[in-house]
Every structure is written in structure tokens, then in C-alpha cells.
Amino acid sequence: MNARAAAARVAARLAEAHIPDAAFEAELLVRAAAGISRTAYFAGACLDTAALRRLDELVERRLRREPAAYLIGRREFYGREFIVTPATLIPRPETEILVECALEASDERPGRPTVVDVGTGCGCVAISLALERPRLRVIGTDVSAAAAAVARENARRLGARVDVVVGDLLGAIRTADLVVANLPYIPTAELRELEPELREWEPWVALDGGPTGTTLIERLLEECAARRVPFAAVEVGFGQAAAVKRRAEALGARTDVRRDLADIDRVVIARWV
Ligand SMILES: C[S@@+](CC[C@H](N)C(=O)[O-])C[C@H]1O[C@@H](n2cnc3c(N)ncnc32)[C@H](O)[C@@H]1O
Predict the structure, then answer these.
(1) Which of 171, 188, 203, 206 is surrounded by the most beta carbons within 10 Å?
(2) What's the number of domains the chain is made of?
(3) Helix extents (H) in the chain
(4) Is 182 within the bounds of a domain?
């Protein structure tokens, strides 16, 4: 069967099950089942019986709300493809703003500043920084050893020089010039109300931000202030920027907030010099 015709059928089934971005996801699943590139997909590649069987299995799993990124094992971030597994959060487009903030701040610093990406997950932020600015010394840290292993594998595959260590926040880090973090920020009480793709598949250690959602973020800002880290940029959830900004200012920082494409306050920047 022609790949695009197969995708049209899959898209109709996904849409019927109210799965968002059905057409886009159908293309991803068809390409994964057939093992073909985007170019081959549009050039009229066909699926043989084995590929159609694989496609059926993937569609059944997607209908049980397993995220497409876990089914195909990949997600694009900042123009590169990262391996993702159920041990890692699936990178979100809004996190690319964190990369932009860190690149701008690092460009103001000569030499070889050390950037630490706290809660690195699959390593998407740390690896993007290392590849965009090879002069940086980049360290990714995560409390999850399984996530850290995926980050190391992504760094190896993409040819990025990133050290990945396991530890709580800055616990395993000696020194940092810039800290960036997309830590969990969903209030614990809201976890059970999330859509099934998040609630049942993404790791709770990557989602659970404590009672108000900002527990880990505030703890990280306290560690930055105590260790005299001059710059930190932290991603926050909807409605959290004001409280995080207040906390950073109470810790002596000058602050700034960056919005995402949906006009939501998304990154709080704290500077101590
Ligand atoms: C929201 S995910 C972000 C992952 C990745 N940076 C991204 O943007 O896709 C948060 C990550 O923080 C890690 N994490 C949770 N608590 C932590 C802690 N106390 N110290 C370090 N990392 C932590 C989780 O394991 C998870 O990988």
C-alpha cells in the first residue's frame, strides 16, 4: 500500500479517538513502520505486508495513548533528533527558549564558561548548547540514572562534548558560570488530571514539582545563590513566573522573564552580578 494512503487511514483512526495532530502523527508512525525518510514518504514509497503489520501494532499502541515519541523512540529538538525513552521526558518546543537564553548569556562571557543543565533528561538542552557553542564546557545532571544514560547516548550519537552526572540539583557539581534548568513544575495534586499520554507514560520524576509546582525550581535558585553562580535561567509553568521571580529577587538576584510563542511567561532569568 502507498505510504501516504496508509497515513490517511491512520490519521482518520487517530482523529476519531480525539488524538491531537492526527495527520502529523500518522505520518510519523507510517515512516517508522516502513523505515523510510520523509523524502521517500512523499516520493510515493509503499508499505509491504511486514510494514503494514508493524504499522497496525504502532497504531494500536497509540490508540492506548502511548506517546508517538516513545513509539518511534525519537523527538526533534532545536533542529536535531534525540533518542527518548519512557525514562526521559519528551522534549517540548517551548524549552528551546531556555537554549536561546543560555546562548545569549554565554555569548556575553569570554573564555570557556561552564554551563550546567540541571534535570537534563534526554540531554536535549545540554547537547544543543554544546553543539551550538563548542567553546562551552557543558555538564548535564539528573537525579535519574536511567535518564542520564539516555543523555550520554544522545551526546555520543550527536558528537557533543557533554559530561553527564547523576545527582540531586547541583549536588554533584563543583562550579558553574551558568545554570539552566527545565525541572519538574506540575503541582503534585494536578498530576492525576493530566492527559493519559503524560499521566501514564512520562516519568513522574520529570513532572512532579511538589505542592505548588515550584519546589525544585526554588531550591535550585537557593543553591545558585549560596554557591555564587552568577546566572541561572529556569523554565516555569503557566502562572508560576511571578512567584519564581519574587523568590530569585529575595535571594538577591536581578530578574528578567521571557515569554514563549503562546505569550506565556516561560523562562525566569536570575543574575547575581
Ligand atoms: C521536565 S524534565 C526535563 C528534561 C529535559 N531537560 C527536557 O527539557 O526535556 C525534568 C528532569 O529533571 C529531573 N529531576 C527531577 N528531580 C531532580 C532533582 N532533584 N535533581 C536533578 N534532576 C531532577 C528528572 O529526572 C527529569 O529528567
Answers:
(1) 206
(2) 2
(3) 3-16, 22-34, 38-42, 49-63, 68-72, 96-107, 124-132, 145-158, 196, 215-226, 241-250
(4) yes
Identify which of 76, 85, 89, 267 to mutate to test ligand 1's pocket (most ligand atoms within 8 A of the CB): 89
46 and 133 in one domain?
no
Range of the structural domain that residue 236 is part of: 86-271
Q: Ligand 1 mean position to 112 CA, how many Å?
A: 25
Query: 111 C-alpha to center of ligand 1: Å?
Result: 28
Check whether residue 52 and residue 156 sit in a common domain.
no
In a shared domain, residues 26 and 127: no
Whether 138 and 184 share a structural domain: yes
Per-residue pLDDT 10s for the chain (273 aa) are: 899 999 999 999 999 999 999 999 999 999 999 999 999 999 989 899 999 999 999 999 999 999 999 999 999 999 999 999 999 999 999 999 999 999 999 999 999 999 999 999 999 999 999 999 999 999 999 999 999 999 999 999 999 999 999 999 999 999 999 999 999 999 999 999 999 999 999 999 999 999 999 999 999 999 999 999 999 999 999 999 999 999 999 999 999 999 999 999 999 999 998
CATH of residue 117's domain is 3.40.50.150
Q: Which atom of ligand 1 is nearest to the CA of 184?
A: 1
Residue nearest (by alpha carbon) to ligand 1 atom 17? 143
Dist. CA 272 → ligand 1 center (Å): 24
